[in-house]
Amino acid sequence: MKNEIDNIYNQAISVIEKITNGEALEALRVEYMGRKQGKLTLLMKNIPDLSIAEKREIGPLINKVKNALTIAFDKKEKTLGQITNSENSFFDITLPGEKFNIGTLHPITQVRLQVEKIFQKMGFEILNPNEIDDDYHVFTSLNLPPQHPARDMWDTFWTENDLIPITHTSSMQNRAMKEKTPPFGVIVPGRCFRHEATDAHHEHTFYQVEGLYIGENINLSHLIGTILTFLQEYFQKELRYKIQPSYFPFVEPGLEFLVSCVMCDGKGEKDKIPCSTCGHSGWLELIPCGLTHPKVIEMAGLDPKKYSGFAWGMGLDRLVMLKYGIEDIRHFHAGDLRFLKQF
Ligand SMILES: [Zn+2]
Predict the structure, then answer these.
(1) What's the 171 CA to ligand 1 centre distance in angstroms?
(2) Has 311 been annotated as catalytic?
(3) Does 107-340 carry CATH code 3.30.930.10?
(4) Is 175 known to be catalytic?
(5) Is 53 a catalytic residue?
(6) 3-state DSSP of 51-118
(7) Active-site annotation holder among 29, 112, 168, 293
(8) CA of residue 224 to ligand 1 center, whole Å
(9) From the CA of 315, how far away is ligand 1's center (Å)?
(10) Which helix (H) or strand (E) holds 309?
């Protein structure tokens, strides 16, 4: 019996070595160690018939062989598993890659960056406004005291504690004048809010770029030169301009800056079709502006007899619409990828 056990062990070990797949290995395990008909199991079933002396010898021997075979089977199983795994993890470099959607900057952000760059080249600094500010900075310090009828032009939202989601980024004028030493120029690009009934040209949320320059002996020619240079650089076009009087409480005189229409080149029509962008007039009323009101300079603690300046507030949304021929301002906030992916 001892020989029989040795034979079974040797046979099993030599066959295990040759096995190349998991199924054959499992079959072999059943053949030798299966609970009912395994070769080793059958031998163990004979143990009760043996003499006590034989039992003492054969019992431990069978156990030893059983343990050795178990280890051999487990080891082989592990080896086969590793081979299978490395087969599964084969990496096919010829497969097409996964597609990633790459985001782009919103057209308003793209244009804001362009505008900032142009003014930075002209020596202007960039300030960021507070999106919610107080009455003093939004109105009073801009020569719009409480009860002033001109406040009606900026119908807006108020918070419960009397703060204002800013109606214009002019809210930084007073701070800029207090913090900086003339001569200085700043632009303030930012998001503004007004109580508007929305349509193709009006939104309750929009973007404005305020500009302010303060120095000595500043006059209208500085204002005109700055704005015209900017617009020609932005539209990459020679433009004609004209100014006409207007009223804004924080400037004196107050003006509208008009340029020849960028869509029809000032002709009022394109291919004999009336230009809808300029309403057939050939002119675009683009930028409300003017020379800074002496009272506004005084309220910031500067001497209006010594210092003068100019300011403007232009709609960033409008600049984007004109540059890309966008017909409806509401596209900007619609979150429609078909629109946004075109930029
Ligand atoms: Zn036109």
Answers:
(1) 32
(2) yes
(3) yes
(4) no
(5) no
(6) CHHHHHHHHHHHHHHHHHHHHHHHHHHHHHHHHHHHHHCCCCCCCCCCCCCCCCCCHHHHHHHHHHHH
(7) 168
(8) 21
(9) 18
(10) strand 308-315
Q: 162 vs 54, 141, 155, CA distance in Å?
A: 103, 16, 14
Mark whether 209 is an active-site residue: no
- CA-CA distance, 151 to 129, in Å (whole number)? 20
| 202 is an active site residue | no
Task: Output the tens digit of pLDDT for each of the chain's 343 residues.
Answer: 788 888 888 888 888 888 888 888 888 888 888 888 888 888 888 888 888 888 888 888 888 888 988 898 888 888 887 766 665 667 788 888 888 888 889 999 999 999 999 999 999 999 999 999 999 999 999 999 988 887 877 778 888 998 999 999 999 999 999 999 999 999 999 999 988 888 888 888 999 999 999 999 999 999 999 999 999 999 999 999 999 999 999 999 999 999 999 999 999 998 899 998 899 999 999 999 999 999 999 999 999 999 999 999 999 999 999 999 998 999 998 989 899 988 8
Q: Nearest to residue 310, comparing CAs of 289, 294, 295, 296?
A: 289
How far, in Å, from the CA of 258 to the mean position of ligand 1?
12
* Backbone angles phi and psi of 339, in degrees to 5: -75, -50
Q: Is 252 annotated as a binding residue?
A: yes
Instruction: Choose, from 115, 186, 209, 251, the residue flagged as catalytic.
Output: 251
Catalytic residue among 29, 137, 194, 293: 194
Query: How many other CB atoms are found less than 10 A from the CB of residue 109?
Result: 15
Task: Indicate the SS3 state at residue 253.
Answer: strand
DSSP code of residue 146: T
Question: 317 CA to middle of ligand 1, Å?
Answer: 18
Locate the domains of the chain by residue range.
2-88, 107-340
What is the C-alpha to C-alpha distance for residues 117 and 22, in angstroms, rounded to an integer? 68
Q: Structure tokens of 119?
A: 């003014």
> Of 12, 137, 154, 293, which is the active-site residue?
154
- Identify how many contiguous H helices and E strands the chain contains and give both numbers: 12, 11
How far away, in angstroms, is 111 Cα from ligand 1 center? 21
194 assigned to active site: yes
